[in-house]
Design goal:
The chain is mostly helical. The chain has two domains: about 45 residues; about 80 residues, no CATH class. The chain has six helices and no strands. Helix 4 runs antiparallel to helix 6.
Length: about 150
Amino acid sequence: MVKERYDLAFALRRYAEAIASLSDDDLLKLADETYSVEVKFLRRRGKGAPEVEVSKENIRDLAEKLISTESRDQALAFLNSNFRTKKSLDSIARLLDVPVLKTDKVDGLAEKIVEATVGARKRSEAIQGYRKHSSVALAAEPSKDSSD
């Protein structure tokens, strides 16, 4: 019975703290009958295990592996397996001179990194391949103005 009272007192104290942190507008809404009140539970971010700091050398090695991947899908899978947080993706993005916005989400930042590395290389290869084929075709064609 004592534990139940303690739990109730603890819960009421937490409600009181939440109400005390409300803005003046929210307090007016709380007193207004035209508004309904809902309780929402959010898990606090625990201090848990600290994120392992990745050294600059390690980031460089991982960046080189990323650049050498063959496809965008492989690069994205590589990023997802090695860089799980925005902070870690941010560090590799800055190393690769990829612009990072505060509003970028983890998935969007990973896509930016892939496009800046593998995507840029693939586009360059496609352009160079096109130029090689077109220059070979032009060289193989006989000149039309010399036969007249």
